[in-house]
Structure formats: C-alpha cells, structure tokens
Amino acid sequence: MLWLAAALLLLALDAPAAADEESTARPDWPEALRVRGRLAEAFAYRLHDPGDVAKLKTLGWLEGKYTLSESADLRVAARGWYDAVFDATDRYPANVERDEARQLSLREAILTLRRGDLEVRLGRQQIVWGEAISTFVTDVVNPKDFREFVLPDFTELRIPIWALDAVYRLGPGLTVEGVWTPDTMPNRLPKRGAEFQFARIPFRFRNPVTRLPDDADEFSLERSEGGARLSVLREGWDVALIYYDQADKSPVFFQRRVPQPPAPDVIVLEPRHPRLHVIGATLGKSLDDVVVRSEVAVTVGKRYETIDPLDHDGVVRRDTIDYLIGVDYTFLGALDTSLQVSQKILTGSAANLTRPGVAGVATTSVALRVATGFLDNTLNPTVLAVVGADRGDLRVSPRLDWLATGSLTVSIGADIFEGPRRTLYGQFDRNDRVTFTTTWRF
Amino acid sequence: MCRLALALVIGLALVAPAVADEAAEIVRDADRFRRPGDSFVWKITITSEEGKKAPSVDGFEVYVKGSGRSFVRFVAPPRNVGRSLLALGRDLWIYLPDAGKPVRIPFSQRLVGQVANGDIARADYAGDYDVTLTGEESVGGITCHVLDLKAKTKDVTYAAVKYWVSKDGRRPVKAEFYAGTGTLLKTGTFANFKEVAGHVLVTRLTLVDAIRKDRTSTLDYGDIAIRDVPEKYFDKNFMKSAD
C-alpha cells in the first residue's frame, strides 16, 4: 500500500504542473466553484389497511465542486432528510423511527487528480459498473440502502464508500480501472416494523432463538475489498470484463446450537458476510436504431440460508450466475421503451432456500419501462413493470412528471405490488402506495 | 442504332458517378457552414415554443472533434444540469446524475422540444447520408439545389432528408426531415450566417413540427471557439468527471 500512497502524493503535488492538453491556469475562485442543490417534499399514502400516510419526507441535497486546476478538482455533497410521518402517526416502532426519521449524510467527498491518461478519484464516492438500468447485476461495488426497498433512484440507493478509484486509458477505446476500499459497509436493511421490512426467514425451530447483531466494523484493512475492470470500445461494441473481491453485502445467518442444560439448546443466529468473488462481463451495442445491453456476473462463494433441519450450520453454498439481456427502442420517435429479461441461476439445488428473491434453481424476471412526453416534453408519463416469471409476483410503478418550470418538477405516481407472500415483490403486497413529490433544483 | 445505344450507355455510366460526386460535394460544402472547424467548442441554446405557452429554454455546451465525435454538456435549466451526451461515430451515451453512469441511447431519442439527440450531437450529413441531386428550386428568392439524402444506416437521426442548398455559395437553406415510413417529421430553416474566426457559419436553425405548426424549436449557436479539444472529452469514463 505504501507505493500507492507515494504515487498518490506525487500525483497530488505534481497535479498543477501536469500539463494536460489544456491550459493549467487556475480559474478565479468564483468560476472554479460550482454549487447546486435540490429540495424535495415527498408524500406517500399507503392504500391497504391500515390506509395511512407512509411518508412525509423533506429532503435536501447540496453539492459543490471546486476546480483546483485542469488536473485536479474537489467535490463534496451532502444529503439530509426529516420524515414527519413518525410524528404524524404512531404506526412505527421506536427503533424504526430512530433509524429512518432523520438523517444527514456525506454523499460525496472526492479529490480527483488527472495526469495524462490517468485519473484517480480518492474519497467517499459511488463507483458504478454495468450497462443495465434498474438492476444490480454488475453494480457490485457500493452497498445499497434498502430501507425503502428499491423504489428510490439508484444514486440514492447506493451507499457511498471511502475508496480509491483509478482509471487509466491504455489507448483509444481501451481503459483499465482499479478499485480498492477498506470501507466494508454492508447493505442497509429496514428494521423490524418498518414500512418495507423484508419477510423474515421462516426457520422451523422449536428451541429458543437468539439473533446476534450485525456489527462488523465498517472499516477494515484486513477485510478490504477491491477489483478491476477492463473496458474495450471497438466498432461500437462496448465490452467490459470485471473482477471484484468483496464481503457479501447482505448478512447470511449461520446457526449454531448452544447447550443450556437442563433447558433446551438455544439456537444462535449469527450474521456473517462471507467472502465473494464476482467475475463478470458487460456488453452494450447499437444495432441500427436498437440498443442492446447485456450483463453477466458469476458470484463464487455465495451462501444462502436453508431451513433443512439436517444442515449443521443452516447455510449452504450456491455459486450463482446472474445475467440479463435488454433492448431499447423508440417507437415513432416518441415512445421510449426498454425491455429487460434477467435470470438468477444457482449452481445446485434450491430446495429449502427461503430468500424471497430465489424462486428455484433459475429465477427469471422481466422488466418493461415505457416513457413518452407531451406538451413539448413537459408532461412525461413513465411506467415501469417488473414481473417475477416463476411465481407471478410483480411491481408496477406508473409515474407522471410535470416539469412545471426549469427548476420545479411535480410528480405523482404509484407503486403497486402483487404476488405470494414469500416472493420478492409479493412480500410488499400490502404496501401499495400512491406518491406525490415536488422537487426544486437550484 | 446499336452504336447509339452503346454510346448512350457509356455516356450515362460516365456521367452518373460525376453527378453523384457533385451532389456529395454540395452537401460536404454545406456541412462546412454547420461546423466551424475540425475541433471546436460552441454553445447551443434551444428555445422551444408551443402555441401560446411560455417558451422554454435549454442550454448546451458542445465539444466537437473530427467527424462524428462530440461531447454535449447540459448547462440549463437547473433540472438538466449535470447531464451530458457523448457521441462517438454511431454510438451515443447519456450520463444522468440520477443513474450515476453513462447509458447507451439511440440518436433518434427525444432530447427537448422538436430536437433529437442527433440534432446537436451530429452535423455530418455528408458522412451519414447517400445523396442524390434532384433539381433546382427557389426558396425565399434563393435559387437552391434540391438534394435527396437517404440514411446509409438505420442508426442515424433521420431516415431521409430533403435538403435545399443555395447554388450561390452552397449554403444550407432548408431541410425536411423524414421518418423511415416516409412521414415528414419536421422542417428546418437555416439562418443568421455570421463570420467567426474566418469561417462563415449558420448560427440559427429553426425546426417546425410537421403536424403542429405552432410547435417550434430554435437552435442558436454562439460562443464559438475553434481550439483543440482534449481527447478525454471523448471517453465515456470522463462523463462522470465532467458533471
């Protein structure tokens, strides 16, 4: 790591002198500083019994970028929110209120340094890999915040991490990227009693159960994560190969029996984050007026909880292949459509596995997004429908965005879930909601 | 008789390529009024109007290098700031801050008002279309060549363009843009020719919807700077940094 630190320091010191292809003259500070932000008021009403307000959130984002020179810039972004629903209703337990009522977080703090064909980004950031929209097949670097399921924008879902991201252009259309992070933060899951609490694993214990907290250190050099991506763009074929070594971002509950004579054994459920090796590839290509995209990721070391009573630790290893194929096409120059088929394949039996996102050895889902614009594209309806093909669970999210002015957007929408209880979308069958959001950008 | 026919065939064979060459040359010359150099930066302001509604204004900063490489930064209104487009030949990406990564899109996708992505990201009619010279017409008192442009591939913005180029000076005057079905989509008129750094350039393109004539988009080109644009602008990995 010493060489890395030395190289970075050298780059930082040398950055202003590193004559890029443009002038390195430092701009005056008012020109060098760019500040922008947003304020939003988000309201959601839960339709099912108990029909009630489910969100009354005021959100604010503020971000700044300071250009030190053509070779260096600094970005800082923060987000804060206050959700008044916890004061307006008493439906949610105190632990959920503590977890979700208010938050102030640093979303970005990045020093970017450039020298020739090398760009280094150091700091708290989101590193996004992949070609597809609204899935995470190769978007593996950042943990995700699932407290509102997968309904917010993906930049809001991703939890920024402290990382070093270096991109080097080997030649025209050929880029290599290396990522390293000691920030091993896991996915953030909703607390028990939250609006979008995930269905619990249906263990069949008759013994008393103790669930240990998931409190692994967020920072660890020993458990640090990293990987690389090689991207090639040739004749319009955009291909990338990725490798990432990480801890599973979602906890896996290992079981052990603790004898308590003369009482029955206690079952201890211990959350762990087993090491994963993700090997993947992405592809993007325009074929005439159709855009084709595809992603595949093989996750080696993936483990799932099992309810097989004969399994000694309640966990089985199933290396997993995730892939998707998507096409985009604009009908009549006005109707933008995007169709995506994805599949998760386990390398082994799926019997006794109970994760809502796993329907069998192969779990297939189909997503369709349709968008258009009226009134000079100031009124933009969009529908996103995702169907779990195996068990018939689905999510439909229609939305209408009205661009009232250049700064103000008013959106109304809904999120409808259907399906059996223990399916990815069916677990939120009672959480159908309508939403109303106003966003002001400055 | 046979000799006459043979002479005609040979004559046609010799003349046809020459006519095609002339047509392509006219379009190439007209393209020069739509791009000031091989590497340059300009700002495009699009004013979209519909009936009696208040016009909306969108601003873009466009970096161009060579034929078919352009990087477009969205600079106004506030809701679009942070977005960018990258066109490399026949491939187009959009960077949306909400997605956090470049996403491939077709050139024909709507950008704003009557303007498609390709209208600001590509200006190479000579490279994108096969050209036929069909005759002459007068447009607003200007005698023009009339040219039929057929897309060489399906991934360009329009399947066909009917193009009027002035005989005198070969300036672009008017264009009709067609879909693959032969439907007229919109009509464009080129105006406000100005001399910038030794080049005479079109600085205004007005697009009118073919059906709703009250829907118009006016593209104004300004702040033109002819300079060597760094290569990094044409790398999709740069799009996030450019935000």
Provide key terms for this protein.
heterodimer, A: mainly beta, three-stranded mixed sheet, B: 243 residues, alpha+beta, outer membrane lipoprotein receptor (LolB), chain A, 13-stranded antiparallel sheet, two-stranded antiparallel sheet, 4 helices, 50% strand
Number of strands of chain B: 15
Amino- and carboxy-terminal Cα gap of chain A: 41 Å
Structural class of chain A: mainly beta
Low-pLDDT regions of chain A: 15-24
Any idea of the CATH class of chain B? Mainly Beta
Per CATH, what is the topology of chain B? outer membrane lipoprotein receptor (LolB), chain A
What is the overall number of helices of chain A? 5
Structural class determined from secondary elements of chain B:
alpha+beta
Instruction: Average the pLDDT over all residues of chain B and give the rounded result.
Output: 86
Q: How many beta-strand elements of chain A?
A: 24
What's the tally of helices of chain B? 4
Strand order of the largest sheet of chain B: 6-5-4-3-2-1-15-14-13-12-11-10-9
CATH superfamily of chain B: Lipoprotein localisation LolA/LolB/LppX
- What CATH architecture of chain B do you see? Clam
Oligomer, anyone? heterodimer
Radius of gyration of chain B: 19 Å
H/E element order of chain A: HHEEEHHEEEHEEEEEEEEEEEEEEEEEE
**Helix and strand element order of chain B:** HEEEEEEEEHHEEEEEEEH
